Amino acid sequence: MKSFERLILSYLKHLDSPGSYARILFVHFSSAFNTIVPALLRDKLFQLNVPDSMCNWITDFLTDRRQFVKLETHVSDLQHISTGSPQGCVLSPLLFSLYTNSCTSGHQSVKLLKFADDTTLICLISDEDESAYRGEMDRLVSWCSMNNLELNSLKTVEMIVDFRKDPAPLPPVILCDSPVTSVESFRFLGTTITKKLKWEQNIRSLTKKAQERMYFLAAAEEVSPPCEDVG
């Protein structure tokens, strides 16, 4: 969280400069954990100097897994799967992070934030020069294509942070031949971010959750039996 706060402060400093704004792309993958290719992951682990025995164990763990679906009394046929990491497995977020470790930004004005399958592309733009932002988007699309990851353009959204007075409408972002929806706010890693970088909406959300937790505690205290004095 501290690194995220430092990032917000750097954005505010940038937005204080004349003619500056930021575009934030919240990327959504289609079935992210299910698309990991064991052979590609093994090669990436080798490049990260992971011991051979560990690489072979992880590859064996992800290869030729057996799976079936049960709905009430109905059970599907057993299927053998050699792609992806099991949903709900504690290793899956780590394996996906290692799988996408080589996906980085190549331009200093563009930050690529990743937390498991939550990926965000942030560009600090000056003088309306968006070439770096759009170039990094193309690089991301190309990298995903080469690594068997599918971007969901319908669930990917963008937020524009612009404090300029009366700015001209900005050109839309096209991802995989589909226009990206622009949003006023977005919930990222448990924090609600707004295009004005205000915290009121996030504070209201946290306050509401706290009140709900307090209600359950109060209700539990009312129904609990009184303690008896055994002394």
Structural features:
globular, 5-stranded mixed β-sheet, 231 residues, two-stranded antiparallel sheet, 13 strands, alpha+beta
Q: Please count the beta strands (DSSP E, at least 2 residues each).
A: 13
Order of helices and strands: HEHHEEEEHEEHEEEEEEH
Query: Looking at the structure, what is the overall shape?
Result: globular
User: What's the rounded overall pLDDT mean?
Assistant: 84
Query: Strand content of the residues, in percent?
Result: 15-25%
Number of helices: 6
C-alpha termini separation: 49 Å
Percentage of residues assigned to helices: 25-40%
Pfam family, one: ALKBH8_N
GO molecular function, one term: methyltransferase activity
Domain Reverse transcriptase: 1-193
Protein name: Reverse transcriptase domain-containing protein
Summarize the structure.
InterPro entries: AlkB_hom8_N, DNA/RNA_pol_sf, RT_dom. The chain has 231 residues and is α+β, with helices and mostly antiparallel strands.
Describe the structure in your own words:
It is a single chain. The protein is α+β, with helices and mostly antiparallel strands. The protein has six helices and 13 strands. The strands form five sheets. It has a five-stranded mixed β-sheet, with helices on both faces. It has a two-stranded antiparallel ribbon with strand order 2-5. Strands 3-4 form a two-stranded antiparallel sheet. Helix 2 runs antiparallel to helix 3.
